[in-house]
């Protein structure tokens, strides 16, 4: 089994009387994209700062590429993109990327193609002070990718990006992960990360309350699948009597079932094809899963 690039084991952090993290554990393997979700104050930023070596845990351990946070091996392995990047306004994009490449011990010329990769090559010789927020965020991603990091920490990375830029951003992240980089991504845009990550970790009040794939968490939560059955004209009464459920808009029947009951329900629907005009199956999404786990006892109010 491949060793994780990031291993967090039973980490607790306290600031005075406030316990920011309590027994947090998670791991991110090479090539894996993990979404870190949680309400404001859940502990996401504290965890990121602990991984980066800016905060020392009161208990537990963190290993980045086998090294302690802040060690030379960890600093060489990790790159970080904050929600709001701040760069010297007087430098051009090209000059800024060359500066960060030198800091990382990389050839500045090898870093230049990253500007094209994130879609701002045309602005390479413009001063960063003239960049929009979205362009600065793209520049931040370019500098985070210098040197092919082993671990990429992304904190609300698509803040300020338009929908097309967000799509392009996640395309780059997918390529980076496919090349072996471990990605830990914090976001409040649940629908955005739903199909863009491999696994989900939900923090609530400093504790991990759920971890797994979306399918695993959906099953664990026991969330219902909603099936909307559109009736043929004038057949909604007969359809309702056959299937049960509730009437909606006078033309359809709505039913809820568990994952185990989905196929038997569809078989019942298929048994009356003359009554059915259409069928819509609505699976629980990440919003539903997050709402379920974050509102359990001990979660936010």
UniProtKB/TrEMBL annotation:
Is Nucleotide-binding given among the entry's keywords? yes
Keyword annotations from UniProtKB, A to Z: ATP-binding, Nucleotide-binding, Transport
The record's section on PROSITE patterns has: ABC_TRANSPORTER_1 (PS00211), ABC_TRANSPORTER_2 (PS50893)
Q: Could you tell me which PANTHER family the record lists for this protein?
A: ABC TRANSPORTER ATP-BINDING PROTEIN ALBC-RELATED
Q: Which Pfam families match?
A: ABC_tran
Name assigned to this protein: Cu-processing system ATP-binding protein
Instruction: Please tell me whether the keyword Transcription is annotated for this protein.
Output: no
**Which SMART domains does the UniProt entry name for this protein?**
AAA (SM00382)
- Similarity remark: Belongs to the ABC transporter superfamily.
Instruction: Identify the residues that the record assigns to the ABC transporter domain, covering every copy.
Output: 6-230
GO MF annotation terms: ATP binding; ATP hydrolysis activity
In which organism is this protein found? Oharaeibacter diazotrophicus
